[in-house]
């Protein structure tokens, strides 16, 4: 098999396409021929050593991928060679209290592809059978790979965590990112009225074309002030936050009385000052959200398959150009997901 691996932390240049023996399958394992693998920004943090995630070197990245079952272990049932499948990006233990309650996103024993487990930047991936989800017939490999993390994370954050209600106003930050594009669609499906923010006018225009009612460029405008103006001084009920730093601070100021901010990422700054007086007087809720339940993941994949949700694919690369693909994400030049397609190598 082939896989993109790195043997030391560093820039995109440490990513090398290498060939080695396909690992032996355990009794409960499934070998998947990868047809598409989506990049996530955390891949860059893992590669350069800043992620704080536990990995061992050499390492293969790739949280989310889809493909065809190549072979199965002796005790695997319900899955057969040739099936079109994706794997849960989070392989939960299935035994802890959280897993028993169907809150797999909170499982402390979770292993992620591309973190603890070799990921999808490869021609093949070995996955335990409990991680396998059959693809709906109408869901393509690329859409399945591109949709899982973004749509399920947005769904979990906006519905389960922020409890978004019909007719509430939502600010979706980073409208051009994978999570932003998904959150706009999820918020609208849940009945929200969506204002977006992004660091470029072009990304805002695209989000407005996709159903946002207004947008703010946070590089050229004061985000809080602009959102208050757009909401007649009331502020928004919910913020979907994935940027961090100053955007997070301004987003708290953009909330209405009883507003909820749910955060799923903080690449632009992990530690921020918070005005506690304003927090209690305005009854602000600051919420964290991580991953999604298995039920939520299956639900959003069905909604992508039936066309309710639409993925945006920015660009496709062969495995041997994984470093170039990382450069695109590093420059934040993408609107939508960047995908690795192993078939493009041959
Ligand atoms: Zn568990």
Nutshell version of this structure?
By secondary structure, the chain is of the alpha/beta class.
How does this model look, in words?
With 346 residues, the protein is an alpha/beta fold. It folds into two domains: 2-149 and 292-345, Quinone Oxidoreductase, Chain A, domain 1 (Alpha-Beta Complex); 163-288, NAD(P)-binding Rossmann-like Domain (Rossmann fold). Helix content is 28%, strand content 25%. It is built from ten helices and 17 strands. It has helices at residues 41-48, 97-100, 141-161, 178-189, 201-209, 223-230, 245-253, 276-281, 294-305, 322-330; strands at residues 2-5, 16-19, 29-38, 64-72, 84-87, 90-91, 111-112, 124-128, 132-134, 169-172, 193-198, 214-217, 236-241, 255-263, 285-288, 313-317, 337-340. The strands form four sheets. Strands 3, 4, 5, 8, 9, 16 and 17 form a seven-stranded mixed sheet that branches. It starts with a strand and ends in a 6-residue tail after the last strand. The site of zinc ion has 8 residues, from α2.
């Amino acid at each position: 098999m082939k896989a993109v691996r790195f043997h030391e932390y560093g820039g995109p240049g440490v990513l090398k396409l290498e060939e080695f023996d396909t690992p032996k399958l355990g009794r409960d394992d499934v070998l998947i021929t990868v047809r598409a693998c989506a990049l996530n920004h955390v891949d860059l943090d893992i590669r350069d050593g800043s992620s704080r995630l536990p990995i061992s070197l050499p390492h293969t990245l790739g949280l989310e991928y889809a493909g065809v079952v190549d072979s199965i272990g002796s005790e695997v049932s319900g899955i057969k060679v040739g099936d079109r499948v994706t794997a849960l990006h989070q392989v939960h233990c299935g035994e802890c209290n959280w897993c028993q309650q169907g809150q797999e996103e909170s499982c402390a024993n979770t292993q992620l592809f591309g973190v603890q487990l070799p990921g999808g930047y490869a021609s093949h991936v070995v996955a335990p059978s409990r991680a396998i989800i059959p693809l709906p017939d109408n869901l393509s490999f690329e859409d399945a790979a591109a949709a899982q993390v973004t749509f399920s994370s947005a769904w979990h954050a906006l519905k389960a965590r922020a409890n978004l209600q019909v007719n509430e106003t939502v600010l979706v930050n980073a409208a051009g990112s994978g999570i932003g594009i998904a959150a706009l669609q999820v918020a609208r499906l849940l009945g929200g009225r969506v204002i977006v923010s992004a660091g470029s006018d072009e990304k805002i225009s695209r989000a407005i074309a996709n159903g946002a009612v207004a947008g703010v460029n946070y590089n050229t405008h004061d985000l809080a002030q602009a959102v208050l103006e757009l909401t007649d001084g009331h502020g928004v009920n919910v913020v979907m936050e994935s940027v961090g730093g100053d955007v997070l601070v301004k987003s708290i100021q953009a909330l209405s009385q009883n507003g909820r901010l749910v955060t799923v990422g903080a690449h632009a700054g992990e530690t921020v000052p918070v005005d506690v007086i304003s927090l209690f007087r305005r009854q602000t809720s600051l919420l964290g959200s991580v991953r999604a339940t298995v039920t939520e993941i299956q639900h959003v994949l069905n909604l992508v398959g039936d066309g309710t949700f639409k993925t945006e694919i920015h660009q496709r690369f062969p495995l041997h150009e994984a470093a170039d693909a990382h450069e695109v994400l590093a420059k934040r030049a993408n609107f939508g997901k960047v995908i690795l397609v192993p078939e493009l190598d041959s």
